[in-house]
Amino acid sequence: MDINDNISMFYGAKPHIFEKAKMLRKNMTGAEKLLWEQLKGKKILELRFRSQHPIDIFIADFYCHPLKLVIEVDGGIHKSKEQNEYDIGRTAELNYWGIEVVRFTNEEIENDIKKVINSIKQKCLNRQSEIQKSPL
Length: 136
Fold this sequence. Notes:
By secondary structure, the protein is α+β, with helices and mostly antiparallel strands. 54% of the residues lie in helices and 18% in strands.
């Protein structure tokens, strides 16, 4: 991987963000582990997802670089006003780089993983279509 790949895939994330991401990968929540089992190994449309992926100052729960798609798993803390405001700002920053963010709650993942996977597949198909249509 050369420096341009590092900038384009990680958006200039600093070493401490990579260290934090590594720690988060080792300590995934139950819902994250459940979803990761469905995403890893190119199981969805032959697309590679990365878990706990550094993007600038953020760490995305799951990221598919070719589609610039982030999947976030929201636990109970995301219901707080402060966290919700932070999430809105974070999503806006990621959107600025052309990255789309999709969110699922722990409950959605734990109660109906098939519905979540179908939703992710549809989002991936939509993103592929958008990317193919957009000028380089």
